[in-house]
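Sanity check. The docking grid for iron/sulfur cluster depends on where the pocket ends up, so I'm generating a full predicted complex first rather than guessing from homology. Inputs follow.
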Amino acid sequence: MPLLINRELVDNDSWQLVGEEALENNELPAGDIIVPLAFYQENSDALINHDGEVAIQLTGDDEIDGVLENPSQFPLIAIFIPALRDGRAFSIARLLKRAGFKGQIRAIGDVSHDRLDFLTRCGFDALEIPADRFSDEVFNAFSEFSVRYQGCEDDSRPVYRQ
Amino acid sequence: MYQYTQVDQQLVNERVAQFRDQTRRFLAGDLPDDEYLALRLMNGLYVQRHAPMLRVAVPYGMMSSQQMRTLAHVARKWDKGYGHFTTRTNIQFNWPKLEDVPDILEELAKVQMHAIQTSGNCIRNTTTDQFAGVIADEIEDPRPYCEIIRQWSSLHPEFAYLPRKFKIAISGGPTDRAASQVHDIGLHIVKNDAGEVGFEVLVGGGLGRTPVIGKQIRPFLQKKDLLSYLEAIVRVYNLKGRRDNKYKARIKILVNALGVDAFRELVEAEWEQIKESDLQLTETEIERVQGFFKPFEYDASAANDSSLETKLAEDQSFAHWVRQNTVEHKVAGYRAVIVSLKAHLKPKGDISHQQMDLVADLADKYSFGEIRSTHNQNLVLADVRQQDLYELWQILEEANLARANINTLTDMTVCPGGDFCALANAKTLGIADQIDAKFEDLDYLYDLGEIKLNMSGCINACSHHHVGHIGILGVDKKGEDWYQITLGGSDGEDASLGKVIGKAVAADEVADTLAKVLSVFVEQRIEGERFIDCVRRIGLTPFKENVYAPAH
Ligand code: HEM
Ligand code: SF4
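Predicted complex below; grid placement will be based on this.
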């Protein structure tokens, strides 16, 4: 799937999102992996010995207070967007930023053109776009607006402090 | 009123271009239907029975005469020559073509108007008192705060995909003319013991399927904390509001499920984190925005007028109109005029392009070029010299805009219902006509006094039927239109939800049923008692008995 990092297409991504079957059978691939928060919590001891880095994937239903206590233990946090209308990811990313998270925040799932700019402003630096929703036009998404009212993770100053 | 800065204008222009591109991608097949649906809704575009419907924002009900002329132009050029004012002070056009909408928006942008967030699951137009700034009983003019909220909520990157729509209303003082208690957030401007002016904050009001009156979560909020507190509330809602069932997704359901105390704790904890951030409003910003809403340079000699007295004595129809359709202004010699969009046998809230142009001209001539829309679907010219009232009345009368029925039974608030709305269970317009026809006698209406009648064509409650003194709800019974009647609702500072009096009545019996209800009131009222107070005092039983008495 096309992956944008800092608004540019990259093709050398080391991260693998571990699929459900592999999780069920506990057959983790070697290398850098992304696993769901619940799986991580259940298997954190075993994962210490994983051959590669381990990142977590959050969804809107996860209880994330624990993660917010020390997000920087993870090199990357992915947030899964199940559907266009589900806007929780925007708030979750901002909470991670506020908790001091410096690693990569990656949007996965239903990620497409008309949300890319807002996602970026809320702190996502990596955007994984399903292949059928990707075209060169998506890069326009970042320049549709040259002005804004609110402060956000890109710049905390609202219009009245600029 | 507020004038766009370069940033405001740029943002609206860029939104038009963005929507044009979204529509192009949709028509080219690059944007799936359900995705375009969400995006077009966020720009006020519904698809209805006959055609798309475009809802244009009238932020907190304020329009300039120039904006009104543009609305008239839009109605002429792209619609069938009329528009419909809604209970959230916006205007809807029922007949535009999808392909034309980007052009309409471009035309609107030229006069600082837009359709941003007039629909969809995002923060909607903030509404307020139609007499803001001109009424003596307000503590402070709420409009600057509405504008500050408009800017904060417009294209907020975090809050574009909330669980459900989100509506905020502000009342400027103890008398609530903004229905603030039935909004997701209601703000009341209050003064604390130290004499500081700030906001009381209510949360979780709303109508629709599950009507709820808002609950207080903060008795006093300082002005500088307005946006940080709102952001805390909306963030908690965005994270915790239900997303599995759209009928349970409004904030009222979350507040009720958690209990207001637990909800408050979450909000206050979130607020702690952000109250000292850049979100804090600066004194300079508040003053800058307040600068747009300064009192006009009123004519000091207006109070010396004696012609009004004479005219009132001479012309009884005029006297009725002044009593019903004008309101005392805080400046002596001025009055606020309500332009009735409740003409006899006409769809309530509808206005033709000729009427729009006329109202614009009248605003220029008599009321500093400004017009307001009300949440009861009327218009207001807020600053008219009393010596001009007679002339103004004659012109309005000529244009069918002076029916002297404000706050009476026929000043009905009515949604478009089954004639236009795809969600309707029943028609509303014909029933409104039936009521108009039955209660045409003005003397009878004046004798009945203040009554608010609200009628919705389905449970979505676009016309706030739960909070009408009399509410009428259209229901579908085996393909036929039936109407359920509630009594005792109010959307004022004494907000309450009406109670159903019994089984629904057939379409041809609605007006007769109201007559039975009103006859109980006439019989039972004590001197000077309003209908709503009488219902509260005597309860529903006498009304039920009369309405459902077995026929002889
Ligand atoms: C004709 C197209 C319209 C459609 C499809 C429509 C649809 C809806 C729906 C689905 C809701 C319920 C939302 C919920 O409970 O979450 C709603 C609520 C509402 N609508 Fe409309 N509406 C239309 C026109 C209008 C008009 C003409 C007005 C004003 C007269 C209006 C004012 C409102 C208001 C004030 C509410 C909020 C009630 C509440 O607090 O729950 N709408 N609308
Ligand atoms: S109340 Fe129902 S019928 Fe009336 S406009 Fe709203 S959705 Fe349509």
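Relevant for the grid: The pocket of protoporphyrin IX containing FE (ligand 1) is lined by residues B 46, 48, 53, 86-88, 92, 164-165, 182, 206-208, 250, 415-416, 420-421, 423, 460-463 (CB under 6 Å).
Also worth noting: The first helix of chain B runs from residue 6 to 27.
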